[in-house]
Design a protein that fits this description.
Number of strands: 0
Largest sheet: none
Strand content: under 5%
Structural class: mainly alpha
Number of domains: 1
Oligomer: single chain
Distance between the termini: 55 Å
Helix content: 55-70%
Order of helices and strands: HHHHH
Low-confidence stretches: none
Length: 79
Amino acid sequence: MAVIHSRERVARNFIKRYGISQFREMLKAFDEMQSGQVIANRLGVSRERVRQWRDVFGETITVYRLYPEAKNLLDGRIE
């Protein structure tokens, strides 16, 4: 529960300083996997600050997707 309040506090502080439109833009940039440096340059902050915000407001999930050629071999469909 304390973590949720902390996240909300960080979000409110961000909005107070940069505005709701910049908050939306930053979250969109995170969703689009834009580099931290690009976001940092836009906001006039360090990449480290952007990394901290990225970690507070969400999580990055990496997915491994098997290519069809390898899957076909597993399924016995060798051509």
